[in-house]
Each structure stands twice: as structure tokens, then as C-alpha cells.
Design a protein that fits this description.
Distance between the termini of chain B: 28 Å
Number of helices of chain B: 19
CATH topology of one domain in chain B: Rossmann fold
Structural class of chain B: alpha+beta
CATH class of one domain in chain B: Alpha Beta
Structural class of chain A: alpha/beta
Strand content of chain A: 15-25%
Helix content of chain B: 55-70%
Oligomer: heterodimer
Distance between the termini of chain A: 70 Å
Shape of chain B: flat
Number of strands of chain A: 15
CATH superfamily of one domain in chain B: P-loop containing nucleotide triphosphate hydrolases
Largest sheet of chain B: 7 strands, antiparallel
Largest sheet of chain A: 6 strands, mixed
Radius of gyration of chain B: 92 Å
Number of strands of chain B: 21
Largest interface: A-B, 43 and 54 residues
Helix content of chain A: 25-40%
Strand content of chain B: 5-15%
CATH architecture of the largest domain in chain A: 4-Layer Sandwich
Strand order of the largest sheet of chain B: 7-6-5-4-1-2-21
Chain lengths: ~375, ~900
């Protein structure tokens, strides 16, 4: 039996330039501390190795601090073995990085920089497929088919690339054959690149990133605990939660009568989790002017409790009824202005952008009226 | 809203007094009282109740306080659709505000709530029309804004407009509109300048700046990342190249190639050296063989030549002898010729000397002869001079004065004329001779010329030869007038004067004189010929020559002979010289011949002697020749051997140049590989440094961060753009709506106003601008008048009517509001006020109007509910 943790896409050193200043440091820090969480899980689950399937570093030239601190953290968890595979973000083209890692590498860190059989443990052969360049443009796992190992050896594949036509950052190149595990007689093929966990077949898995870095996958950061009972036996794969921050896009479909803020309150996580949550409320459906303003106000009100809380209301239609306009004014010039904006926001002859401007102006008028009345 | 009652206490002069105005009804209510009775105080109290917050103490509130102090209290009962309420406010001390329901006595609201309730009445809640339409004494508006505008009284039209406009805005909810527009503009002003550009230091501008800065940073970092990646790629390439170059097999192969090439070159070199030695020996042998051959040939040629030369030498010796002989002969001949020349020349010299002497003697003789001749000429000249002098003397005797002959001639002619005249009447004789008559007829002794008539004065005697004498007589007396005689007398005198007998004599003498003169001239000429330069000169010449003349010598020889002798001597010299000249070439030629012969001889002799010396003694010559031939034979054999040896070496020689080229190539390949390695290592070192620097800077992380930040910043800029767009849109829409609303409301107001005007001014028509509600023209009695001529009365009437029109409009809209007039008609005359009241009554059917006025008489008969001010004490 051989037990290890399959993870990858740590993207150490990612700086999150698009995030608010105060959040960047925390997000970056979370990427570093995931090393410790992985090690804790490994110890807790009795795994002897952590296989990182590429993109351990976000760039080919991480800062010396990022690199050194990562190695120091890994060294701290000896005798746990860490295996680092070059991915597309930190391919072998980043020779400086890999030579620096090779130089500063502690004993319990293995660099899978060569497509050659490596004995991970007695009776366990690691077959890595390191990314030679940022875009290798070929199936780097092909060599595994012809790589012979002694009878009774567990064959463990490690690769970083897309399968089929999905890739984490589009423009898939160097697609891995989906049945590589079967072809090469692998007991398990640990894949990286896709940031969400995904099972291709019983022996082929993407672990997903242990610490999410974007809204794309809507799932908590996790790693896979893989147990190989024996040569040829199907692996047991168990997900382990490792994420510190949660990135989620929460759909909020509203009907005209819905109470947006109430629905929102039901969707938002409870208190303590909020600080570690990055949420995007994707509002769809229809809302009245009032409801819409109320929803925005509710989001604005709740936002400070979250790492990030933002409202995406691009696809939320605004229902404007006479009652809404009455709140602006029952008659007179203000009512007239509101009516005009409302008509313009529904005018299909105008461009979508113009409609959007009219809609936004109406909402603003509404909120200004509220503010002055109060 | 309608007002049912007004009460106040402690207001202005009503210190510790209360006033109540109860039973204010619908329609027109009139409070008519004298000045200082409390009308204006009532009005102000009512205004403060509705418009002054109970908490504030602005001067309007302070004015309410009595001089003696105290807290003003104001309350009013109102009727609104919701019910009847009592509003109450106490200002300054014990501030409070309450709203009670009069239906059930409940306290509806107090303090701020009460204020909000009252404000709602005044502003009509969110709908916003003013609940009260006030017209004050001489004032067409109310509140600060209106008052400010009132200050500009000259702006009649403006103030009228503003009084109207203020109501319009009140009706159209304009205050909220203004607030919203202001809020909208405020938000916009934070972002952009009035011209729509991003405001400096505003958030929009900052976002733009940030985005631009980030874009630049991102571009720079992207460039650096590209450089880094390029460097990484290049380093990989270089490392691959280096690995290939450093491959041990390759290096060994290159090394081996060099070693092999060098061995081949060494071999080639030693072979070449051997070949060179052999070729040198062969060359030596060739030289020796050739030398031997040359010696043999030379010996043989010398032998042959010796024989030939000996014969030639003998011939040359003979020739030389002959030449010497010929030269001796020639020398002799030339000596003789030269002796002859010398002799001839001596003879010639003697002959010349003799000739000279003879010439000198001849000259002396010629000089003596010349002196003699000169002396003779001198004597002849002397004689000739004597003749000249004699001739001159003779000429002087016969010379006539000049003109004498002419005078005589003239006289003669005169006489002849006179005589002819006398003879014209005389007979004449004419004779024509027969041919061949030899002897002429003589007349008076003179021959009678033929064919010439001849007068016969008295008598004529003709002598005819052979015939006799013929006498002719004319027998006629001569006429005498004396003139002829006078002329003849003068002639006589003239003749005697010159000593001549007659004219002919005179003429003769003249001719003689001429001849003598000519002879004299001739003599003189001869004299000049003899002594051209004068006698004296001639004489001197003679003397000079006589002094110079050499002594004449005697001629011993015959000069002719001497001359001939000299010519002979000349000829002899010439001949001798020619002879010598002829001999000269012969002699020279002979000399040259001798020289040539001698040279030839000596040359031959020298050659012969040289040959003889080289050949050695004659008896040893055959042995010598045999020895030379043998030596040549031996050396030739040696040469053949060595040539063969050298040719053999040459045939087997390896190509030295190609061996060198091979070595060069192998060495350069090795060197190039080494240099390439060094260069690659150098480049790698540079790249390593560059990559390390950039890697340590984590440039890629920075780039990703910058590009993400740029994305966020761009979104933010877009959001600001959208914000500005929507605010502009909102502001524009609001402004448009307000303008449209103004039009919308103004039209009805004008519509309401028009019939009221008609009631009031039957003699005046006012044309309003439909758009602005400004009075445009006033037409009075059919005359257009300037609008600023509006009288104060008309202004206030218009103001009141305008409010009435609004009040009607509001009432029609279901929101009635009271119109309160405080002495609003001070400028108007009674008639006008009467009409005005008709208008008011007409209004008051569904409109509450409260009039405060001091014009008791005027208002006394106008009807309406009469209000009274009663003492009032607030409930404690």
C-alpha cells in the first residue's frame, strides 16, 4: 500500500494586483500557508509524500523570498516527501528557478525535472512529465508508455497539462491523451493545471488547487488523498479540504416580488466565514427599482464583513412600475424626468449601452429621491 | 388646506397679550383695521408658524419678541382632507411645537415631528406645491430669495416674473428638483469639470492617472519579462550548444585529427629535406661535369684557334710592313709640298712689299699734280673775278631804269594811234606779188610787203626792180591838231632822259643790258664753279695741300711689272697650298692604315701568345687533351647516377602543402571549438547574471501583478465613465423635464390669469409671452406702452391675480391653498379695488382668501366675511 497526497497549482507568489490593496497580502499569504495545511493533512492521514503536479510557483521568476520560504516550509515537514513538477507557469524554461531550487533544495524535496523513472519509495516508481516550456505543444506523457519498471512496482504518473480541450487558461497545447493511465499501465496519473478537482477516470485525476485563486470553479480548495492498496488495484481517492479562502459566485435569481435583501441574507455564509470569503453575487431575473436599490444597499452594507463581496447585476433586469415612479414623484417635472429615463431604458431602438445609461440614471434618480426625502 | 383660526400671544407689541382671529371661513375674509392695530403682526405670526422652525432664533423670529421680552406663541386651526388640526409653536423661551387633532383632541405630533407635519402642509409633502400663497404689503414674494429680488425694484418685469416663477416652481415641486439636481451636479463636480473633463485630483482623474501609470508599468514590465524569457531561451540554446561542444568524443576526435595531421606533415617535411639534399648533390655533379666539358671544349677550340691565329698573324705582319712603307712615302711628299708652300709664301711677301713701295710713290706724285691743278684753278678764279667786276661796270652803263621802255612804248603806241588816225584818210598802196618774184618792190627805200596796204601821207616812192621808180603823191594837206606833236615831244624828252635815240634804240639798249646781265650771270657761274666755296677757301686749300704734300720719290721699278710679279707669287702660293692639301689625306690615310695594321697585328699577337700559354708546350698537348676528355667522361657518369637518385626521391614525395593545409584545418577546427566554448561560457555568464538579477527582482510576478492591477484600474475608469455618463444623462433629463414642466404649468396659469385680467382691466390689455409668462406689451386705449411703465398699482394687482390664478390651478388639482393678502393693494384706487374684489369673490367660491387691510372705507362695502381681532389668553 502506498498513500500520498495529490495536489498542485499552488501558484506561490501570486500577487493579486486586481484585488483591493488590503486583501492582496492576505491572499498571497494564504497561498504560502497552504503548504502547512497540506503537510498537516498528510500527517493526519498517514500519507508519506505530497505530489505537486505543476505550477507550484506562479511565475518563472518568483522572488527569492517566495522560493526560499516555500523550501523552508517544506523542509520543516521532513520526513514528509515533497515532489515538485514543473508546470506551464514554472516550466523548465525557467532554468534559473529550477537551478536555484536544486541548489537550495532540502533533502525531503524532490524535483521532478526529468522525464525519467524515479523511485519515490521502495516499489513505487514515479513517472513525471515536466513541462519543458511554457507551451510544449505535445503530449509529454507519451514516454511513460515505453518506460519499463520491475515487476510489482507501483507506477505513478505525474503531469501538468490539459486533457481534451479544456485548460485552466485557454489555448490548450500539449493535450494529454485521456487514456494515458491505461496505455502506460499507470496505477495512478496525478494531473495538474485545472484548478477544480476532476476525475477523468478511476486512475486519472485532477486534484484542483488546494487554495483557490479565482471565481472560476466555485468550490473550496482541496487536495486528494490517494491510497494505492497494491499494484493494479484501483486507487482510493478522497478529497481533503485545504483552502483558507473561499471563492464563490453565488447566483441570485430574483422575481419582481422577491425581497432581494432577504434572499441575499439567506445566501450569505454565517459570520466567521465571511472574513475568508470572496463572494460574487450574480444577480439575474427582475427587480423593481426599489428592490434593486435595496439589494445594492444590502450588499454595500454587508461587504465590510467579507474579504470581498461584490454584486454583478449586469444581468438583472429592472422592473419599473408606476408605484416605483410614484416614490420619485407623483407628478411634476421629477416624475416626467423619471418617466423619460424609464422609457429610454426600455427603448429597443437605442443601443444597449444607451439603455444601460438610462437605466442607471433612473436608479440614481430614485436613490437621490430617497436620500433627500430621508 | 384652509385656515380656520389664528391666535398669538406675546408677539411684538402684544406683550403678555393675546389676539385671536376666529371663524375664518371659506371664500373672502377681510380683516380691516387701522394701521398699528395688529394686522401685520397677525400676518407675521402666521408666517412664522408655517415657515420658522420653533428651535431656531433667526432675526425674523427675534423680531416677533416684544420689547419687554417674553416668548412668542402662535397657533392656528387648519382644515385639511385628513381632518382638523391645531398647530402651535412657541419660540425662543420654552420652545415647543405641537400638532393636535381637533376632532378627538389627540396630540398628533410634537417637536420635530410637528415641524415635519407643518412642512408637509406648506410644501405639500413630496408633491411639493406651496400650501400658502402669500402676498405682502408692497411685496410680491416672500422669503429671502424673493426679498432679494424685490430690492431690484427697477427690474419691474423681473420681479413680476420672479413672483410668478417662484409659484411655478413651488407648484412643480421645484425645490426637490433643485436639490436633486444640485446633488447630481455635486456628484458630477467631484468627478469632472464643468466642461466635462476629468477634474484634477478628483477620483476619476486619479483613476485615469492610475490606469495610465499602470499601463506604462505593465508595458515596461512586460518588456522586461520578454527580455527575461528571451534570455532564458537564449541561455538554454547556448547551454545546448556548449554541451555539444563539450562532448568528450567530439573533443577527442578533434584532438586526434590534429595529431594525425601533424605526423603527416612531419613525414612530408623530412622527405622533402632528403629530396633537397639529393637534388643539391645532383646539381653539384652537373656543375662539375659541365665544367669538365667546358674545359675539354675550350682546349680543343684553343688548339684550333691557335693554328688559325698563327696564319693571320703572319699576314698582319706583312700588312703592317707595307703600311709603314706607304706612310713614309706620304710623309716625304707632304714635306716637299710644305717646303714649296713656304717658298711661295716668301716670294709673295717680297712682291707685296715692292708693290707697297710703288703705290706710295704714285700717291706722292698724284698729290703734287693735284696741288698744281688747284693753283691753276685759283689763278683762273682770280681772273674770272676780274671779268665779273668789269662786266658789272659795263652793265651799269647801259642799264635803263625800269619801266622806261614801257613808257616809251606807250608813247609810241599813242603816237602810232594818232598817226594811224591821221593816215586813215590817206591813200594806200597794196601790192600782191606774182609768184616767183624775187625782188620786192621798195617803198621809200624799204621793201613793200605783199598784201599789206600802205598809206601814202604825202608822197611815196616805189622802186621796182627792173622797172624803175614809181612816185606816188597824195597831195592832201595834213590836218594838224597838235596832239601828235605833243606826243612826239614827250617822246623826245623821254628818249633823251634815257639817252636813247628812239624806242628801238631804247629797246636795243635794253636788250644789250639784258645780254650783259646774262653774260655777267654766266661769269659769276663760272667763278662759282671754279671756287664753289669762295676764293678764300680755295686759297686756303691750296696752302694746306702744299703743306701736306709728301716728298715725291723716284719710281725705281715698273709698277706694272711689280704687279705681275705679285700676281705670279699669289698663284704660286695657291698652287703650292693646293698641292700640300692634296698630299695631306694621303698621308693621313697612310697613318691610319699603319695604326689599323699595327692594331690587328698586336691583337693577333696577344691572342696567339695567350693561346700558346694556355695550351702549354706543344709536345704535351695531345696528352693534356686526352686527360681532359677522360675527366669529362667520369663526371658525366656521376651526374647520371645522382640525377636518377633525385628523380626517384621526387617521385615518391608526399604533398607538403596539402599536409600543412590538413593540419591547419584540424587545428583551426579545434581552436574554433575551444573559442566557441569560451565565448559561450562568457555569454552564459552574462546571461546568468542578467537572469539572476531579473529573477531576483521577481519581474514576472511584478508584471502579472501590474497587469491584474491595470485590469482592475481599467474597470474602475470604465465605471467612472459610466458614472459620469449616467450623471450627465440624469442632469440633462432633469433639466429638460424641468423646462418642459415649466412650459406645462405656465400655460394653464396664463389661461387662468387671462379672464381675471379681463375683469380687472377693461381698458387695458396685457400680452404675455406664452413661454416665460413675462408681460410683453401693454395696450392701453389702443396704444402700445412700454412695459416698465406699469404703475405700482398695476404691478400689485398683477401679482395678486397671478397668485389667484395659481390658487385656482391648485384647487382644480384637488389641493386648495389659502391666498393671504396683507395690504397687498396699497397702490390701487378704490375703483380698482372694487373690481379686484369682484375677482376675489369670483375666486372665493372654492378658494379661501384672507385679506389684511387698513383701507377700512374701501373695504367696508366689498362684502366677504369680516374678521375681528379679539383678546385671547392661551390655556396654561
Amino acid at each position: 500500500m502506498y498513500r500520498f497526497i495529490h495536489s498542485g497549482d499552488l501558484h506561490l507568489g501570486k500577487r493579486y494586483g486586481n484585488m483591493p490593496e488590503e486583501l492582496r497580502g492576505r491572499l498571497k499569504e494564504a497561498r504560502h500557508t497552504v503548504l502547512r495545511r497540506l503537510a498537516d493533512q498528510a500527517r493526519a492521514q498517514g500519507a508519506s509524500a505530497i505530489l505537486l503536479a505543476g505550477d507550484s510557483f506562479d511565475t518563472e521568476t518568483p522572488s527569492p523570498e517566495t522560493r526560499r520560504q516555500a523550501l523552508a516550509e517544506m523542509a520543516h515537514h521532513a520526513p514528509l516527501t515533497w515532489v515538485l513538477l514543473p508546470g506551464n507557469h514554472d516550466s523548465l524554461q525557467a532554468a534559473q528557478l529550477w537551478s536555484a531550487l536544486a541548489t537550495g533544495r532540502p533533502a525531503n524535496v524532490t524535483l521532478a525535472t526529468e522525464a525519467a523513472i524515479h523511485e519515490l519509495a521502495p516499489g513505487v516508481a514515479l513517472l513525471p512529465a515536466p513541462c519543458t516550456t511554457r507551451r510544449p505543444g505535445r503530449d509529454l506523457t507519451q514516454w511513460m508508455d515505453g518506460a519499463a519498471t520491475p515487476e510489482g512496482t507501483i507506477r505513478l504518473g505525474l503531469a501538468h497539462a490539459a486533457i481534451l480541450d479544456f485548460a485552466e487558461e485557454g489555448g490548450a497545447s500539449g493535450i494529454i491523451t485521456p487514456d494515458r493511465a491505461a496505455r502506460a499501465g499507470l496505477d495512478y496519473l496525478a494531473l495538474g493545471d485545472w484548478h477544480g478537482a476532476m476525475a477523468i477516470d478511476a486512475r486519472t485525476h485532477y486534484s484542483g488547487t488546494p487554495e483557490p485563486d479565482r471565481f472560476k470553479h466555485d468550490r473550496p480548495g482541496q487536495a486528494l488523498l490517494v491510497t494505492l492498496p497494491a499494484v493494479g488495484a484501483p486507487p482510493e481517492v478522497t478529497p481533503l479540504v485545504t483552502g483558507s479562502f473561499e471563492w464563490r459566485t453565488i447566483p441570485l435569481h430574483l422575481l419582481a416580488q422577491d425581497d432581494g435583501p432577504a434572499r441575499l441574507a439567506a445566501l450569505l455564509p454565517p459570520g466567521p466565514e465571511r472574513r475568508q470569503s470572496l463572494l460574487r453575487i450574480a444577480a439575474t431575473g427582475r427587480a423593481s427599482l426599489n428592490a434593486r436599490t435595496a439589494l445594492a444597499a444590502a450588499i454595500e452594507h454587508a461587504a465590510p464583513e467579507f474579504a470581498l463581496l461584490e454584486l454583478d447585476d449586469d444581468r438583472l433586469e429592472t422592473d419599473c412600475e408606476a408605484g416605483d415612479l410614484d416614490l420619485i414623484d407623483r407628478a411634476g417635472a421629477l416624475r416626467e424626468a423619471a418617466e423619460r429615463l424609464h422609457a429610454a431604458s426600455l427603448d429597443t431602438a437605442a443601443s444597449a449601452a444607451e439603455r444601460e445609461v438610462a437605466r442607471a440614471a433612473l436608479i440614481r434618480l430614485f436613490s437621490l429621491c430617497q436620500k433627500i426625502a430621508s | 388646506m384652509k385656515i380656520a383660526a389664528l391666535r398669538f400671544y406675546n408677539v411684538k407689541r402684544f406683550a403678555r397679550q393675546g389676539v385671536a382671529i376666529e371663524n375664518i371661513a371659506d371664500g373672502v375674509n377681510v380683516l380691516c383695521a387701522a394701521n398699528e392695530y395688529g394686522k401685520s403682526t397677525s400676518f407675521e405670526a402666521l408666517h412664522a408658524l408655517f415657515f420658522q422652525p420653533h428651535t431656531g432664533a433667526p432675526k425674523e423670529v427675534k423680531r416677533l419678541q416684544p420689547y419687554s421680552g417674553g416668548n412668542p406663541l402662535v397657533e392656528a386651526d387648519i382644515v385639511v382632507p385628513e381632518g382638523r388640526f391645531r398647530l402651535s409653536k412657541q419660540f425662543l423661551g420654552g420652545r415647543r411645537a405641537t400638532v393636535e387633532s381637533l376632532d378627538d383632541g389627540r396630540l398628533i405630533a410634537q417637536a420635530d415631528e410637528a415641524e415635519r407635519f407643518i412642512a408637509g402642509l406648506v410644501r405639500g409633502g413630496t408633491a411639493g406645491p406651496a400650501g400658502l400663497l402669500w402676498v405682502r404689503q408692497g411685496i410680491t414674494g416672500i422669503g429671502d430669495r424673493a426679498r432679494k429680488e424685490e430690492d431690484e425694484e427697477r427690474q419691474v418685469r423681473e420681479s413680476l416674473l420672479s413672483s410668478v416663477q417662484g409659484e411655478v416652481e413651488a407648484v412643480t415641486g421645484g425645490r426637490r428638483m433643485s436639490q436633486i439636481m444640485a446633488a447630481c451636479q455635486d456628484e458630477l463636480a467631484v468627478l469632472v469639470t464643468p466642461t466635462g473633463r476629468p477634474k484634477a485630483d478628483g477620483p476619476y482623474s486619479k483613476a485615469l492617472d492610475l490606469r495610465n501609470t499602470l499601463a506604462e508599468t505593465e508595458k515596461r514590465l512586460a518588456g522586461e519579462v520578454a527580455i527575461l524569457r528571451e534570455a532564458l531561451d537564449r541561455r538554454a540554446r547556448l547551454q545546448r550548444e556548449l554541451a555539444e561542444l563539450s562532448d568528450p568524443d567530439e573533443q577527442a576526435a578533434r584532438r586526434e585529427a590534429v595529431v594525425k595531421a601533424r605526423a603527416a606533415l612531419d613525414h612530408a617535411k623530412s622527405h622533402a629535406e632528403r629530396l633537397t639534399a639529393a637534388q643539391a648533390q645532383a646539381g653539384l655533379a652537373r656543375n662539375q661535369a659541365e665544367a669538365a666539358e667546358r674545359a675539354l671544349v675550350a682546349f680543343r677550340e684553343a688548339l684550333h684557334r691557335s693554328a688559325t691565329v698563327r696564319v693571320a698573324l703572319d699576314a698582319a705582319a706583312a700588312q703592317r710592313g707595307q703600311a709603314l712603307t706607304r706612310r713614309a712615302e706620304a710623309a716625304r711628299a707632304i714635306d716637299e709640298a710644305l717646303a714649296e708652300v713656304r717658298a711661295a709664301e716668301a716670294g709673295e711677301a717680297a712682291a707685296r712689299a715692292l708693290m707697297a713701295r710703288l703705290d706710295a710713290a704714285l700717291a706722292a706724285r698724284r698729290a703734287a699734280a693735284e696741288i698744281e691743278a688747284l693753283r691753276a684753278r685759283l689763278a683762273a678764279a682770280d681772273a674770272k673775278r676780274g671779268e665779273v667786276e668789269a662786266a658789272e661796270a659795263a652793265l651799269a652803263l647801259i642799264a635803263l631804269p625800269a619801266g622806261a621802255v614801257d613808257a616809251l612804248q606807250k608813247l609810241e603806241t599813242e603816237i602810232a594811234t594818232l598817226r594811224a588816225a591821221r593816215e586813215a584818210g590817206l591813200p594806200s598802196v597794196l601790192l600782191d606779188y606774182e609768184p616767183g618774184i624775187a625782188t620786192p618792190v621798195l617803198i621809200d627805200g624799204e621793201p613793200l610787203p605783199a598784201g599789206e596796204p600802205r598809206p601814202v601821207a604825202d608822197r611815196a616812192r616805189l622802186t621796182i626792180a627792173g622797172l624803175g621808180t614809181l612816185t606816188l603823191r597824195s597831195n592832201r594837206p595834213e590836218a594838224d591838231d597838235g596832239r601828235l606833236e605833243t606826243a612826239q615831244t614827250r617822246r623826245l624828252r623821254a628818249l633823251s632822259a634815257v639817252g636813247a635815240a628812239d624806242l628801238a634804240d631804247a629797246r636795243r639798249r635794253e636788250a644789250q643790258a639784258r645780254e650783259a646781265s646774262a653774260a655777267l650771270d654766266l661769269l659769276r657761274l663760272e667763278l662759282r664753279h671754279l671756287a664753289p666755296e669762295g676764293l678764300a677757301t680755295l686759297r686756303e686749300e691750296v696752302a694746306r695741300r702744299a703743306a701736306l704734300a709728301p716728298e715725291p720719290t723716284e719710281l725705281s721699278d715698273d709698277p706694272e711689272e711689280a704687279r705681275r710679279a705679285r700676281e705670279a707669287a699669289d698663284r704660286r702660293v695657291q698652287a703650292a697650298r693646293n698641292a700640300a692639301r692634296e698630299v695631306e689625306p694621303l698621308h693621313r690615310h697612310a697613318g691610319e692604315a699603319v695604326t689599323a695594321a699595327e692594331t690587328a697585328y698586336l691583337t693577333l699577337k696577344a691572342e696567339f701568345e695567350r693561346l700558346e700559354a694556355g695550351l702549354g708546350p706543344e709536345n704535351e698537348r695531345p696528352a693534356q687533351e686526352a686527360r681532359l676528355a677522360s675527366a669529362h667522361e667520369n663526371l658525366a657518369a656521376t651526374l647520371r647516377e645522382r640525377d636518377a637518385a633525385a628523380a626517384q626521391l621526387l617521385d615518391g614525395a608526399p604533398d607538403l602543402q596539402s599536409a600543412e593545409a590538413v593540419l591547419r584545418r584540424a587545428t583551426s577546427a579545434e581552436d574554433a571549438a575551444r573559442q566557441q566554448q569560451e565565448r559561450l561560457q562568457l555569454d552564459l555568464a552574462g546571461l546568468n547574471a542578467e537572469i539572476r538579477t531579473r529573477s531576483d527582482d521577481a519581474v514576472e510576478e511584478a508584471w502579472r501583478e501590474a497587469s491584474e492591477a491595470l485590469e482592475a484600474a481599467s474597470k474602475r475608469v470604465a465605471a467612472f465613465e459610466a458614472e459620469v455618463g449616467l450623471l450627465n444623462r440624469l442632469a440633462g433629463t432633469l433639466a429638460d423635464a424641468r423646462a418642459a414642466a415649466r412650459d406645462l404649468y405656465l400655460q394653464p396659469v396664463i389661461g387662468e390669469l387671462r379672464p381675471l385680467l379681463g375683469m380687472l382691466f377693461d381698458d387695458v390689455s396685457i400680452v404675455f409671452d406664452e413661454k416665460t409668462l413675462l408681460p410683453q406689451t401693454i395696450r392701453r386705449n389702443g396704444q402700445d406702452e412700454e412695459i416698465d411703465r406699469l404703475s405700482g398699482g398695476m404691478r400689485e394687482q398683477l401679482s395678486v391675480l397671478t397668485r389667484l390664478a395659481f390658487a385656482r390651478l391648485l384647487a382644480q388639482g384637488g389641493r386648495p391653498a389659502p391666498v393671504i393678502l396683507d395690504d397687498a393693494l396699497v397702490y390701487s384706487d378704490d375703483d380698482r379695488i372694487e373690481r379686484m374684489f369682484e375677482a376675489l369673490h369670483r375666486q372665493a367660491m372654492d378658494q379661501q382668501i384672507i385679506v389684511f387691510s387698513c383701507r377700512q372705507r374701501a373695504f367696508a362695502r366689498l362684502g366677504g366675511q369680516v374678521l375681528r381681532m379679539e383678546p385671547w389668553q392661551p390655556a396654561t
